[in-house]
């Protein structure tokens, strides 16, 4: 199925969304061609988004042969299961059921803890609150720092030798983290405090499946401004 025609696969979303980035990385890992459709996320939302995801009306949405799949982690799992025809692409989720459960657990942790801090820190201007949120950020990442050797089996990624499910979940946030570090003049992914994650982040960003999909820190303000303007 790796030869699926581009018009058969569409991704609805915004380029700066970590949830959308996850889907695009997964498709690239599976060598699936697709069309990326920027949608209006604020009210009134794009008609195609409302029609494709009438329950939550949120991005991303994967349209495969006209059928919508919603929620980023669900979409990534769908991509992993759908495109498995031996085209040279590797499995995204771990093969072992226990390892797969652990990866899913930490992905939920990232969505619950890490992304909440990104949304809280982005608009914050008060210095004391910025300092406190940065401290909380490093605490949350600290548990992932500890989990990394076990999840990755001592190798370069959470997925072992290659980018996997948990790498995608966390790596999709790296652009926002670096943008916040620059904007707030703070250090979140501190190499001294979080050496494993700092090294992992460099490896992740250098992967061909990631290049061009996770915006650089300087790109976030203009992408965000463009998204707001379009709404």
UniProtKB/TrEMBL annotation:
Alphabetized InterPro entries for the sequence: Glutathione-S-Trfase_C-like, Glutathione-S-Trfase_C_sf, Glutathione_S-Trfase, Glutathione_S-Trfase_N, GST_C, GST_C_Tau, Omega/Tau-like, Thioredoxin-like_sf
Domain GST C-terminal positions: 96-225
GO molecular function, one term: glutathione transferase activity
Reaction equation(s) it catalyzes: RX + glutathione = an S-substituted glutathione + a halide anion + H(+)
EC number annotated for this UniProt entry: 2.5.1.18
Keywords noted in UniProt: Transferase
An annotated GO cellular component: cytosol
Broadest EC class assigned to this enzyme: transferase
GO biological process terms, semicolon-separated: glutathione metabolic process; toxin catabolic process
Domain GST N-terminal: from-to ranges: 7-87
Family the UniProt entry places it in: Belongs to the GST superfamily. Tau family.
Protein name: glutathione transferase
UniProt organism field: Zingiber officinale (Ginger)
